[in-house]
Amino acid sequence: xxxxxxxxxxxxxxxxxxxxxxxxxxxxxxxxxxxxxxxxxxxxxxxxxxxxxxxxxxxxxxxxxxxxxxxxxxxxxxxxxxxxxxxxxxxxxxxxxxxxxxxxxxxxxxxxxxxxxxxxxxxxxxxxxxxxxxxxxxxxxxxxxxxxxxxxxxxxxxxxxxxxxxxxxxxxxxxxxxxxx
Amino acid sequence: xxxxxxxxxxxxxxxxxxxxxxxxxxxxxxxxxxxxxxxxxxxxxxxxxxxxxxxxxxxxxxxxxxxxxxxxxxxxxxxxxxxxxxxxxxxxxxxxxxxxxxxxxxxxxxxxxxxxxxxxxxxxxxxxxxxxxxxxxxxxxxxxxxxxxxxxxxxxxxxxxxxxxxxxxxxxxxxxxxxxxxxxxxxxxxxxxxxxxxxxxxxxxxxxxxxxxxxxxxxxxxxxxxxxxxxxxxxxxxxxxxxxxxxxxxxxxxxxxxxxxxxxxxxxxxxxxxxxxxxxxxxxxxxxxxxxxxxxxxxxxxxxxxxxxxxxxxxxxxxxxxxxxxxxxxxxxxxxxxxxxxxxxxxxxxxxxxxxxxxxxxxxxxxxxxx
Lengths: 181, 371
Known about the structure:
The complex is a heterodimer.
Chain A: H1 2-13, E1 18-20, H2 23-26, E2 30-35, H3 39-48, E3 51-59, E4 61-62, E5 64-73, E6 79-87, E7 92-94, H4 103-114, E8 117-119, E9 146-147, H5 148-151, H6 174-180
Parallel strand pairs in A: 2-6, 4-9, 7-8
Antiparallel strand pairs in A: 1-2, 3-5, 5-6
Helix pairs in contact in A: 1-3
Chain B: E1 3-6, E2 11-16, E3 28-34, E4 37-44, H1 52-55, H2 65-71, H3 76-91, H4 97-125, H5 130-150, E5 159-160, E6 163-164, H6 170-195, H7 198-204, H8 212-218, H9 223-226, H10 234-237, H11 258-282, E7 302-310, E8 313-321, E9 327-333, H12 335-341, H13 343-347, H14 352-361, H15 366-370
Helix pairs in contact in B: 2-3, 3-4, 4-5, 4-11, 4-14, 5-6, 6-11, 11-14
């Protein structure tokens, strides 16, 4: 019930970006793959649906970093993962601290670890690292950073028209950008 | 403590911590005071930051296991459980039923020891010394029990991918049953000594109000959320392990204050004891490790999220695998981080002495917040 209601609500705004995930394997029900500017609209939808923000984090990938938003609900079991992509050399996404106050710290932490700028963040100073830290520990060395297709789950073959195993998920935003590079 | 004074503003700046005894670890809170009232509070983190997430990226999955006992040293087994659960979900390894039962029994014992420590330390923060001695006496029994099977007293590393490292003994089972009997006798004493104590009630009642709306904005979970009337517990909402097979309740209080959070934790202890008893009764025979678990775990490409309910709330691990022996990314979502982030908002306009009872009622464990 909660899942279908949430799905309808997200679908009405992001009809192309939403996809269902296999909960038993990945631990979340819905995945929304967005352009970086749209993370605020997703946060607004999730707030209206009564979700709380679990965390904000990122993965260092080439050429685009992936910024991840985990949402969960307190009534029942429904987890939604939002993903946005931003160029690795100058990562920037808008802040959602205006909607979820808790995002303030999560975004500061992600800024510490990855150097991602959260546009319009009220107080983007180091949280866990020293105030004079000039490094971002979770940014990988150039030789070690991988591409999106290297970490994406191989699609199950039974699905009609599914890409061959090992190929990246066709993502509206990130996938295409990844292929261009 | 360093005190700075700005005469023009007539405000007093006070550093509470990082060595203040009531911050239980190394948390610093900068307080801007107007007389005895807090105008603004800013928690400063990072004094015990160890970058556990980076460590996860440069060692194999099995080598990362001991880290889990050190993120939150007071409920180490819940963290063990979450990590092995996440890796098992990623690889498809299924632990045998006996191992799942042992995991729940030991994790719930760990939850009891965490709550007992919190109970003693919290009342100590508020000026009551004696309950601390009683609760540490009780907690000592749990540490002895867990030491007998896990080999350590605090930073447990007992669970393995596909089971647990060692089977429990008959002595452990008799000892656990005896301990539950003992704690059941002691809890009413705690109630008369503390819960009904008028001095204590005056310090915690209507202090540190967390409204359900604010709790959601900040992602507050665990007893702090259940003290605000929201019945959310990962063990019930998103059942894992054998929790669906045992009968237990989720205590909820709707006072939204420190007293409600206190009562929730006290009631939770009884529920943990119920879970342990039922699990001991139902404990199946059999192996405690799944057959054919590879020495070097190598999950397929992909990501997975796994959450458990620790003594402090919803703890989640997000693992991204690139198909090698080392994780590409491990994210630890710790409950204390979100629970503390609400402190600045709820302490605004309250008395300085209430900051102590508010902070204590959130049950902060700083290593888990700083990671």
